[in-house]
Amino acid sequence: MINLKELNDNRIFFINQFGEWKIDIDFNEPEQSQNKLIDYTISVEEECPVAKHFGVEKGTGEGIVWTCNYNGIVYRMKVKGELHSTSKVKILAPVDIERVNSINELVCNVVTENRLLQGLDHLRENNIELSIENTGSFIKWVNGDIVKEEIDLIIGSNFEIKEVMAPASKKAKAWFFDKIFSDDAN
């Protein structure tokens, strides 16, 4: 059995002695968790829990290393605050959840079953095989049709085309994969 006090007396510490943070992240919509990650990171940056443990009141925390064990594989990511960012580190930016939700609602209204089926018809009419290799052709057609038919709706909703195209592509891709891997694709 590990004697924590004995290890600490010999200046050996475990990082989780200084606090742990837990968060559920839906990787289909990671932006929904981003603001919470920012809050945690800023709290560590403002008062480093390791420095505090050793009696240093003005310690600036470097960030938080997040660990996820998924299907036996350990993934890690580090989230840093502005004080520890370097020229190539992305700075955490808050997410406007209402805007993201509005975009997702618009995507649900423009990436319709009918439009997706028309995309399949387009591939078939052009003798393009329904396969993973042709996912890009499918998505390109769907996005092109959205821009052609729904540009007024997108602009009228105060969105830029690129804001809508990424989630539209994601939805079209998922639908396409479901179709090509099902028995009724061809």
Describe this protein's structure.
With 186 residues, the protein is mainly alpha-helical. The chain folds into 2 domains: 72 residues, no CATH class; 84 residues. It has a two-stranded antiparallel ribbon with strand order 1-2. Helix 4 crosses helix 7, helix 5 packs across helix 6 and helix 6 runs antiparallel to helix 7. The longest helix has 22 residues. The mean pLDDT is 86.
Number of domains: 2
Helix content: 40-55%
Radius of gyration: 24 Å
Q: Could you tell me the strand content as a percent range?
A: 5-15%
Shape descriptor reads: elongated
The quaternary structure here is single chain
Mean pLDDT: 86
Structural class: mainly alpha
CA-CA gap between termini: 61 Å
Largest sheet: 2 strands, antiparallel
Q: Strand order across the biggest sheet?
A: 1-2
Number of helices: 7
Descriptors:
186 residues, mainly alpha, 2 domains, two-stranded antiparallel ribbon, 7 helices
Describe this structure in a few short sentences.
This protein is mainly alpha-helical. 52% of the residues lie in helices and 8% in strands.
Q: Mind sketching the topology for me?
A:
Blueprint: H1 4-9, H2 31-46, H3 49-53, E1 64-70, E2 73-79, H4 97-110, H5 113-125, H6 135-156, H7 161-180
Antiparallel strand pairs: 1-2
Helix pairs in contact: 4-7, 5-6, 6-7
